[in-house]
Amino acid sequence: MVDMTDFERAAIRACLMPLGECVAEIGMDKPLSAYSKEQVLTLIEVIVTAFQNEMRKGSPEVPF
Description:
Strand content: under 5%
């Protein structure tokens, strides 16, 4: 993202807990290069969902 706002930075930080939970479920000792395609897709879905949810909290008009 280019020229992130403080609000967007906060939304990114809000992704840390869901990201950590997902990684813990997959296995903390498993390198990212060893993730299956489904595990990577799940990880992306978790992060994008957390980001969108956080963005929605601060604005009634979210463009996605």
